[in-house]
Amino acid sequence: xxxxxxxxxxxxxxxxxxxxxxxxxxxxxxxxxxxxxxxxxxxxxxxxxxxxxxxxxxxxxxxxxxxxxxxxxxxxxxxxxxxxxxxxxxxxxxxxxxxxxxxxxxxxxxxxxxxxxxxxxxxxxxxxxxxxxxxxxxxxxxxxxxxxxxxxxxxxx
Length: 157
What we know:
This protein is an alpha/beta fold. Helices cover 56% and strands 18% of the residues. A 5-stranded parallel β-sheet has the order 2-1-3-4-5, sandwiched between helices. Helix 3 (39-49) runs parallel beside helix 4 (65-75). It is elongated and about 65 Å long. 27% of the residues are buried.
């Protein structure tokens, strides 16, 4: 099983610590590459660790989870983002979807539902990585084919 990297972002230190230590990330196929206390820190951390997944609270100082999602997707389109929130407000969820957030989870987070969410997201990351590898192999094959054709025939077609 591949292990994918994640960044956790929440302005509440207790929640951040609880998420980092209270979830068996390795069993779910993840490793915590870093933690941030606001969206700005998370965005800076992304440049260092290049995560596959960002899990963020929606309300944080300096840059909230929605703005983080928007900017993160602009930088890395294939990045998966999960937002968790204490706000059961449809407009927040709508905006999150518009920014490419994969899941919008309400607090308090049910551990079983959260595990299912992470498994679903992990599967999506795995599928995207496999597609990327397959596409690269196809591109490499075609380049090699055309190069060999040119070497042996002199034709550029």
